[in-house]
Amino acid sequence: MFSSISWLAVVSTVVLFIQGAHASPAAFIVEKASLRVLSPASQVGQYDTALANFGTPLYGASLLGELVYSADNALGCTPYADLPRAKGVGHATIALVDRGSCYFAEKVLHAQLAGAQAVLVADDVDEPLLTMADPDGSAGGGTELARLAQEISIPSALVTKKVGDALRAATVAGDTLVLTLDWKDSISHPDDRVEWELWSSSDQVCGDSCTRTQGFIRDIMSSAVDLEEQGSASFSPHYVTWSCPIAANDSEKCGGLCINEGRYCAPDPTDGQDVDPIVADKVRAHGYNGSDVVTENLRRLCLFKELTGDHHGNVPWKGGAPWWKYATTHPVKCSMADGTFTAACSEAVMSAGAPDGCGLDTDAMGRISQCVGDTSADKVNPLMDAEMQLQSDQGDSGRGAIVMLPTVVVNLDQYRGRLTSRDVLRAICAGFLESTEPRVCLSSALQSNECLRPDHGGCWFKETPDANFSACVDTFRGVECRCPSSFHGDGVVCDPVEECSDPAMNRCEQECVNVLGGHRCECRSGFKLVGGTSCLQDPVEMSKLRSIDAGSIFGISLLVLLGVTALGYAAYRIRIKGEIDREVRALMAEYMPLNDEAVNDPSPPRGRVNGANGGIETELRTVRGERKVSFYDDEV
After folding, report:
1. Closest CA relative to residue 247, chosen from 449, 20, 38, 53
2. I want to staple 459 with a disulfide (CB 3.0 to 4.6 A). Which of 224, 251, 292, 471 is the partner?
3. Mean of pLDDT values over 86-102
4. How far apart are the C-alpha atoms of 62 and 48, rounded to whole Å?
5. pLDDT tens across 231-241, in order?
6. What pLDDT is attached to residue 544?
7. Are 177 and 159 in contact (CB under 8 A)?
8. Residue 191 pairs with which residues in a beta bridge?
9. Contact 419, 212 (CB under 8 A)
């Protein structure tokens, strides 16, 4: 297969072909990041940089660092003996290297191995910014250099000659340049849903490029399906295609590479410079060529159309999962090297009858076959025509033409960087409006949780024995300070809300108790809490309560009865005592002189005073008989 650089020429042919029949195609887009020089004051400014097509741009983030330059290895084409390091605390080392003499990837790799966290390449000619491509097997460095390029894990970008000259002069003069590289707007992020595309090929043996693409599809499948099922992302596959010029339509070169009389073509799968010769011989022995590749590309487009079309409710994720299953199963089941890269094998993988199939019934298979059509016919295939217009951005969406294989597009911005599931997933996550990212974007594999720092991201934090409360909200791009539920404030200071006094918050049926971070509902005796807010009578508790009430009533009644009895007895005694006292007085008045009467009466008393007992003893005799009454103090 053509290398990725060869594909650039191939796609240019596509653009020229389409330009004759349609409106002018869009140009290739150079994706950019922002560079801001913060100090010294003489160098302060903001500039554009062009992202490299290798390494790992920090989509959705920024990097603060110091610019360093090694005059002894200005081009960076050889390993650094001693690359200067940033001196400021927390500053990254950003290396500046000059363009020329070797591949961009070599310069960046050498700087990375010397400890740089990012690289700026200064252009050596006055020209617009361009995309730095990674070498492939067809480049002078061969397959080893292409493999090493995949080891680059730091971001890099190109600056214009004017900007590069100024930065270089300042560092040589001894100035410490503090700057930021900002990728926050490199991927547009307008809302809570991301649309992304993968432009690739079903080719299996084109070399390292094909191997990486197949590995990427396999590795990102789980995250892609998860995003689709959540409704957070919409994925669509596309396939790079070119047309053979009419003048060369009957030539041997175009004849084996195209379908529909030269309208839709793909490179020979054995043309890659880093293809294993033994594998290439097997593929040629089975007679496979570019026409087989483009036919399989078309079949996959028809499969995706069927899975996401009206017959399946037009719900993307319902069709998305089977498509990913097909894309990962087909290379295993239908091999070019084994001679099974056939329509029959493809249909078996799609069908419901195969153990590892995608579950399509006979009607669906018929619609896919009709969509592919007669590939030998001299006529237009509507789906392939639409695909080629998308490839060259005929609608001028702002995405630009697709000229590299493979290419990932996120929200109409072309991804630049290594084709790994982690790196691409980070770019997809950068496409969400801040604070709307799904859970997969906040995993530790993609970014660190700044809310776990000792300062809690600079937000309010309250620790209690029962729970901790924090206003820090971790997002893909950093933190936001927002008071948690049941608190109000600006996020730096938060105060509790008295929820029980707010009818909009208090849903308790009976009792409400404010607690830190909310409130709780309680019920009166004899009721139990149901559903957190309602109170229902508890038969067991009510029975206990009735028993307690009956016992209380009996006890109170008994106490009252005893009290009444005691009072009655006391009243009875008082009454009896009073009657006896009156009777005694009467007897004493009759038999003993009282006051002056006792002095003037010379008759002797009929009773006697018992001085020994301190009382009076009187003997009375009446017509009814004799009785004796004794008084000892006040006792009767």
Report:
1. 20
2. 471
3. 93
4. 14
5. 999 999 999 99
6. 64
7. no
8. 432
9. yes
Give the pLDDT confidence score for residue 352 in this predicted structure: 66
Helices (H), 154-195: 161-172
Q: Give the least confident one: 51-65, 401-415, 516-530, 563-577.
A: 563-577
Which two structure tokens, joined as six digits, stand for 320? 């998305």
Identify the sign of the CA torsion 427, 430, 431, 435. positive
Quickly tell me which residue has 């070797």 as its tokens.
102
With DSSP H G I counted as helix, E B as strand and the rest as coil, what are the percentages for the chain, rounded to 5?
40, 20, 40
Could you give the residue ranges of the DSSP H alpha helices within 334-465? 343-350, 362-372, 382-391, 421-429
Burial of 6 (0-12, 13-18, 19+ CB in 10 A): middle
Q: For residue 245, how many other CB atoms are within 10 A of its CB?
A: 14
Q: Provide the percentage of residues in the chain whose pLDDT is more than 70.
A: 80
Cα separation, 95 vs 112, in Å, equals: 9
97: three-class secondary structure by DSSP: strand
Sign of CA dihedral 399, 405, 410, 414: negative
What are the backbone angles phi and psi of residue 293, rounded to the nearest 5°? -65, -50
For residue 631, what pLDDT is reported?
39
Q: What is the pTM of this model?
A: 0.71
> From CA 225, how far away is CA 229, in angstroms rounded?
6
Give me the pLDDT at residue 181, please. 95
* Percent residues over pLDDT 90 in the chain: 49
Residue located via tokens 């007895």: 569
Q: Read off the DSSP letter of residue 231.
A: T
Integer CA distances (angstroms), 599 to 24, 592, 605, 611, 617, in order = 156, 10, 12, 20, 20
DSSP-assigned letter for residue 351: B
Report pLDDT for 373. 95
pLDDT of 311 reads: 61
Q: DSSP class of residue 103?
A: -
